[in-house]
Amino acid sequence: MVTNKIARIVIKGKINETTRKKAVAQFCDENKDKRVNFLITSGGFLSFNLSRIERANLSSGNLSLREVEIKAENAVVDFINKIEVVKLRNVADYFIIGVDSDDKKKSAIVQMIAVYDLSERKIIHWTGKSYPTGYEWHSLEKYDDLRSHFLEIENESVAILGCHDLCIFHPRSQPIGERAKLKDDYLKASKKAKPTVVLHLPHFTDHHLTWCSSWNRLREELPSVKHYASGINYIGLNGDAPRKSSNIQKVLAVTKFGDVLGN
């Protein structure tokens, strides 16, 4: 059996318990005679709750990201226990899952990514968004350790990017101050890691041009990259309908490169 490098769970519309389980089951049924190394979701595929006190402690530094990861792990394990994990284990080696804290309070938001080893049935790595959007700058708890985005796995140098992290490569991105330093550090870390596989977990994508320029520049900046893909939740901003000037086929076509199974 030939093993493909990347595959992705694609959801059209809002993500909830029903659509999550249906999308994973459909992927397993459609690919039961295939296998992939890395199966990725969109950002925020799963969510967990942080209490008001926990959010305050996280903002003040009295609660660490490692402690939040332990809390988020419960959401991952709960979901894994609700799906036919044996079927999933038969088609994929690693499940890379976007996990967000509940952001209704717009404070102490954490956007995390878990790498779940399906054969060992455990999370082996955490990372999360490090390069927030402008409006997230003061509310997002960033993953300051940029090394967390890079790991060696399946004989590949893998880079894992949270949603807006990919925008560090956008050719028109010219931040100033702290954001400029963060972008520079992120680029240096990426070039040092020499990734061969890049896995990107954006929260939503409703137009084929959204990530196009960033992916093109990434390939110029990181010639070591042989395979990449974005996990796709095909929906508009704030849960609105996707823009009519594009379609999901175009979105899927321009958000992958190299050995990516299917769409």
How would you explain this protein's 3D organization?
There is one protein chain. The chain is α/β, with parallel strands linked by helices. It has one domain: Nitrilase/N-carbamoyl-D-aminoacid amidohydrolase (4-Layer Sandwich). 31% of the residues lie in helices and 25% in strands. It contains seven helices and 13 strands. Strands 1, 3, 4, 5, 6 and 7 form a six-stranded mixed β-sheet that branches. β8 and β9 form a beta hairpin.
Describe the protein's topology.
Blueprint: E1 3-8, E2 10-12, H1 17-30, E3 35-40, E4 46-48, H2 52-60, H3 65-82, H4 85-91, E5 92-101, E6 111-117, E7 122-128, E8 150-153, E9 156-162, H5 177-193, E10 197-201, H6 212-221, E11 227-230, E12 232-234, H7 248-254, E13 256-257
Parallel strand pairs: 1-3, 2-12, 3-5, 4-5, 9-10, 10-11
Antiparallel strand pairs: 5-6, 6-7, 8-9, 11-13
Number of strands: 13
- The number of distinct helices, counting runs of at least 4 residues, comes to 7
Q: Level of helix content? A: 25-40%
Q: Give the low-pLDDT segments.
A: none
Shape type: globular
